[in-house]
Amino acid sequence: KFMPHFNGPYKIVLANPGTSTYMLDMPAHTNILPTFHASELKGHIQNDKDLYPSREQKWPKPFITTSGAEEWEIEKIIE
After folding, report:
1. What residue ranges do the domains of the chain occupy?
2. Please, which of 9, 13, 32, 70 could form a disulfide with 62 given CB 3.0 to 4.6 Å?
3. Is the pTM of this model over 0.90?
Protein backbone atom coordinates (compact mmCIF):
# COMPACT_ATOMS: atom_id res chain seq x y z
CA LYS A 1 0.00 0.00 0.00
CA PHE A 2 2.81 2.42 0.83
CA MET A 3 5.26 1.11 -1.76
CA PRO A 4 5.78 3.21 -4.91
CA HIS A 5 4.20 1.83 -8.08
CA PHE A 6 7.31 2.59 -10.09
CA ASN A 7 10.94 2.89 -9.12
CA GLY A 8 13.88 4.22 -11.08
CA PRO A 9 14.83 5.29 -13.68
CA TYR A 10 17.25 2.48 -14.50
CA LYS A 11 19.30 1.85 -17.64
CA ILE A 12 18.46 -1.13 -19.84
CA VAL A 13 21.55 -3.33 -20.06
CA LEU A 14 20.09 -6.22 -22.07
CA ALA A 15 17.02 -6.44 -24.32
CA ASN A 16 15.43 -9.67 -25.52
CA PRO A 17 12.80 -8.74 -28.16
CA GLY A 18 11.83 -12.39 -28.69
CA THR A 19 10.42 -12.70 -25.18
CA SER A 20 9.83 -8.96 -24.59
CA THR A 21 12.04 -8.99 -21.51
CA TYR A 22 14.59 -6.43 -20.42
CA MET A 23 17.41 -6.56 -17.88
CA LEU A 24 17.93 -3.34 -15.94
CA ASP A 25 21.01 -1.98 -14.20
CA MET A 26 19.62 -1.98 -10.65
CA PRO A 27 21.47 -1.48 -7.36
CA ALA A 28 22.25 -4.70 -5.51
CA HIS A 29 20.57 -3.52 -2.30
CA THR A 30 17.10 -3.56 -3.91
CA ASN A 31 16.94 -7.38 -3.64
CA ILE A 32 14.80 -7.44 -6.81
CA LEU A 33 15.60 -9.60 -9.81
CA PRO A 34 16.67 -7.22 -12.62
CA THR A 35 14.72 -8.87 -15.49
CA PHE A 36 11.26 -7.51 -16.34
CA HIS A 37 8.64 -8.07 -19.04
CA ALA A 38 7.95 -5.05 -21.25
CA SER A 39 4.43 -4.74 -19.79
CA GLU A 40 5.97 -4.02 -16.37
CA LEU A 41 8.17 -1.16 -17.60
CA LYS A 42 7.32 2.48 -18.09
CA GLY A 43 9.31 5.00 -20.12
CA HIS A 44 11.06 7.83 -18.29
CA ILE A 45 10.50 11.38 -19.50
CA GLN A 46 12.87 13.91 -17.93
CA ASN A 47 11.14 16.90 -16.32
CA ASP A 48 11.64 20.25 -18.05
CA LYS A 49 12.43 22.45 -15.04
CA ASP A 50 11.95 25.66 -17.04
CA LEU A 51 8.44 24.77 -18.24
CA TYR A 52 7.26 22.96 -15.09
CA PRO A 53 9.29 24.07 -12.04
CA SER A 54 6.65 22.86 -9.57
CA ARG A 55 6.98 19.25 -10.79
CA GLU A 56 10.49 18.83 -9.43
CA GLN A 57 10.39 16.31 -6.60
CA LYS A 58 12.63 16.89 -3.65
CA TRP A 59 13.40 13.53 -2.10
CA PRO A 60 14.70 13.38 1.46
CA LYS A 61 18.20 12.08 1.94
CA PRO A 62 18.35 8.64 3.57
CA PHE A 63 20.19 7.77 6.75
CA ILE A 64 22.96 5.26 6.10
CA THR A 65 23.06 2.55 8.78
CA THR A 66 26.24 0.93 10.07
CA SER A 67 25.59 -1.99 7.70
CA GLY A 68 25.38 0.41 4.73
CA ALA A 69 21.59 0.15 4.24
CA GLU A 70 19.50 3.23 3.44
CA GLU A 71 16.71 4.17 5.87
CA TRP A 72 14.31 7.11 6.08
CA GLU A 73 12.59 8.61 9.11
CA ILE A 74 8.80 8.96 8.97
CA GLU A 75 7.49 12.29 10.26
CA LYS A 76 3.81 11.33 10.36
CA ILE A 77 1.27 8.97 8.85
CA ILE A 78 -1.56 10.69 7.01
CA GLU A 79 -4.90 8.89 7.14
Report:
1. 7-40
2. 70
3. no
